Amino acid sequence: xxxxxxxxxxxxxxxxxxxxxxxxxxxxxxxxxxxxxxxxxxxxxxxxxxxxxxxxxxxxxxxxxxxxxxxxxxxxxxxxxxxxxxxxxxxxxxxxxxxxxxxxxxxxxxxxxxxxxxxxxxxxxxxxxxxxxxxxxxxxxxxxxxxxxxxxxxxxxxxxxxxxxxxxxxxxxxxxxxxxxxxxxxxxxxxxxxxxxxxxxxxxxxxxxxxxxxxxxxxxxxxxxxxxxxx
Length: 231
Hints:
The protein is α/β, with parallel strands linked by helices. 30% of the residues lie in helices and 17% in strands.
């Protein structure tokens, strides 16, 4: 049994361009689907957040329309309630990468607020990438890649192929015109090669030890690819 590190946002809001605080956090499916896959394969999960704060779920991600109906929403809520690791996160600053076989970053708009500018998270991502360990990042989770800046000022993920929440999806989700910046744009500016798939359809990109997914629907397939890498 291996230990897998879930690095999760500690933010419960996303600051929009006009200063409005948009309530958010992590997206339920993006934590639940990989968690269940990893646990079913016999792995142990440890959750880490900036400052060790208990992560906040985006309440929107528990709505029936994002879970295939009320029954699915109830299942997701029950699954979250059963994830005891969420209630006992470790501090991101205390994480020793050597203790873990793989690293996974779920999304939600929360990472746009904190992990995108968290130097400690950026350093961990850089180390994970260089270590060759399986590294999975999904949806808005790739915002965290923006903080992975090397000593020479370049991004550690420059030149890598990734999937991430797209401009089209942000537009269709209704927040693009209110955002300070868009994830696809910022990643592209940092030299990261974003592979754009159909909005809301599963898309997973594997580049060396990095496995990325475009949106919530990509969470389960991404977990499958990470498990293959764990052998």
